[in-house]
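User: I'm curious what two different proteins look like when written out as structure tokens. Can you demonstrate?

Assistant: Sure. I'll show them one after the other, since each token string lines up with its own sequence. Here's the first protein:
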Amino acid sequence: MNNLQVLRVGFKIGGGIDQDPTRAQVPYPDTGIYITHIDPDSPAERAGLRQHDKILRVISHFSVITHFDE
């Protein structure tokens, strides 16, 4: 994969300003980014993240973000 490091933290996200709230599976109250799934025994679960938590801030700079379909 072109020498890119892949990090999996064990959660999926949904929402955002480009999402149509009328088509959302869960009607979140705003255009924030929410956790929609936590993988069992993942770093996310061990850190205490839960489904429907809202992500308020990411303290990092992302230069490449890739989505994998599994």
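Here's a second, unrelated protein for contrast:
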Amino acid sequence: MHNDREEPERSSSWSPGRATMILVTGGTRTLGAHVVDQLVARGHAVRALSRKARPERAGGAEWALGDLVTGVGIDAAVAGVGTIIHCASATAKQGTTDAKQATCLIEAARKSGTPRLIYISIVGIDDVPMPYYKRKVLVERLIAGSRLPHTILRATQFHDLPTMLFRSQKRLPAMMVPRARIQPIEVREVAARLVELAENPVDGRAEDIGGPEETTIERLAEQYLAARASASGTGRARRKKIIVVPVPGRVGAAIDEGKLLCPANATGKGTYADYLAR
């Protein structure tokens, strides 16, 4: 646990009889879709916000079309909600979009009342000076200064992240991976923690959450290639060469120092091997 922070104050607990609408931004994305599913399964009234039309898998959730950059549809999406779980996030190429999204959401939330705003962030963003991480720090500060009740949860990288890197190189003769120590976590477990925080809120920073094992992206690549080889019945994928590329500068130094890790909060259960076995 983090000994450098006082235990966050807890707000009143949720019970099935206290049904208030929960809005999930990014409701069709990797994390948001799991949050929506788990909230619905636990009997919550859920509204999913997305720029896309309602998918068939939306289940029992309400659907709200809206754009957090332009603001179109956001006031209507936020109306009447008691909690907002903010899972929408811009890609690294989209520049300042994260801050624009957060500002739009905060302004709409203020107009609608005082819903609790729960934000999913990333372990290590204070110490790893990547532009994308700096934007996440900015969003945390915007939320902390919003005068809304809020909770910020930082998680380590999802298993999906290195897997996307590996899949993007499936047609190449070799696989290039960064030299990086990470502590990947199962996305469903992060979704479950966000649901817990919606039901039993803490004020400010919640305890970080990380996966069960510290590893390297190189080791994950080896596991990925072995799983592919096993699934295909050939050894071709397993024999693919892995080239490890050092991450330069202060970013690489911070990663080497373990700034992406939270070993004291290795509360996740699912390993990368479990993820590949699904």
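A detail about the second structure: Residues 1-8 have pLDDT under 50 and may be disordered.
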